[in-house]
Amino acid sequence: AVLISTQVVVATVFLAVLICSVHGDIKNPEVVIDMQQNNPGDAVAWQGSKYADPAALKAVGYTARGSTGEISGTQAVDFHTLGDFFPRGSAERAWLDAYSNGVAAYVNNTKRVGMESYFFVDMIVFPKPVLDVFTNATDGKGTILWNDVSRMLLSVMINETFAQFPGTDGFIVRTGETYVFDTPYHVGNSPSNKTNARWTEFITFLRQEICITHGKKLFFRSWDNWASEASVYAAITDPIPPHELLYFSIKHSSGDFTRPAQWNPQLGTGNHAQIVEVELQREYEGKGAYPNYVMDGVIDGFSEMNPKIGVASIRNATQIKGLWTWSRGGGWYGPYVHDQELWIELHVLVMVTWWNQRGATAEAQIFNSVCQTLLPGCSDDCCTAFREINQKASQAVFSAQWGGTLKSNPGLWMRDDRIGGDGQTNRHFESLGDNSSDWAATYQLRTDALALWADIQETYASRIQPVVTDFVLNDWMRVSIEYGQRLHSIVEAGWRVMGMGYRKTHGMTYSEADLQTAIADYDSRYQAYHAFGLANVRAASCYHDYYLCLGDDCSGAFVVPNNPNPGIGATVDKYRNTSVLITL
Q1: Tell me, what's the pLDDT at 578?
Q2: Is the pTM of this model over 0.85?
Q3: What is the C-alpha to C-alpha distance for residues 142 and 134, in angstroms, rounded to an integer?
Q4: Residue 475 burial class via C-beta count within 10 angstroms: exposed 0-12, middle 13-18, buried 19 and up
Q5: Residues 6+ positions from 212 with CB-CB distance below 8 Å
């Protein structure tokens, strides 16, 4: 009772802060935007998805489409108003013409179905030939400065973009991450000098150029630019005059789309319109290769939150004027889903339906309706079972990958289609000290996850598989559930290897026999997982046993020579050698 009353008080105070933080009327038009991310530098390139079709997006309830950073009109302009930087007959001109034609088609296809079209723009990015002439825009070492010259170049870029692509309705601006892997004639970097004043100045400049001069919408993304704190947001944005075409895009989570989840306190505060950013193909959690439903947490708060706060708490706040989802993409590389995108589609339909109803219908009720839409023949007990397996899968991921809330979180040791090793997890094992209960708990979390996957497989086989009438979809579900079970069996064995290996190298009590058993379990499970992927055409691409690295050598390779970020495979191999040195 004390816990419940404490949560009520905290939640009440939170809502009161939101009410008191409203300053005047915010009259920006509401938007519901989706974006498909073509992950930068990925040799696999665009993946097939129904959400690549703007008509499909409109049918779901979206009002606009935002391009990925790899389809940006700002990278298709030639700065011809300042000179001839892409001369006819040159390789640069051939690249630019082919690229700009594709960008124009993207915009036209979006406008054709009556949707708004926005460019996702990395800033500041300019063509190399332009910077070769306007050398004062850089520090002479390749970094673009924020000065009068770069401001002039940015103004020209904006003017030429809207002139060349008049159908585009505005920019979604990203500055924390600047990727030019796929654009050989461009370079760029963030304008930040780590001060709030710089962000205020930069956003004010864009407001003038985009909203006022061109009458277009500007969505400025807060992610990775400043701390996710309401006070910092206020310090940066309060000096900027509101405008009906200026929005700030803020993730629902205070950090990235990770767990344990934390609410982003910037949402529902300040003087400006905001849109809520939600990732639907969770880049750190399998990307739709297996069930992992989290929209209940996004909407009403995740189980680990105290108090539980989700977007339902701010859906009708004065500042909230839109939703921006990433239906596909995010992060790097795979896993790549094939044939179906059921788990992603579940996220899409629940989130967008709930949003467009302004939270009037409970998430669970919407889930049930979406279940009947997605699974032919499934209703009543089948949909109850479908919810059970989705929520159990999310709990299994939280336990096995994130380690629940036990001590220091292992963080991003698994991400995209890569599995890290002791280089990524040792801080967690260090946080356990010599507490035997905590050591037992860290192993038990992974064992519990496997038990959940067994429950999921049994529930699917007994209550869902017999009634779903679409054979292909049914078989895809079966394969994806087995994919999740096999992947997390690798995690369980690998976790034992890393934990026992940590104890061994740090002079703590351990069993060499148990360590070698864990290695044998890892080997057999890893090989069986890849055999499963090889033999099942509906399985997503498999995870790799090395950690994230970027560049051509890392794009889906089974082995990456001289990888600076070795993963679980290298850790397991290290402990095969029983003569490993002990460090005290």
Answers
A1: 62
A2: yes
A3: 12
A4: middle
A5: 243
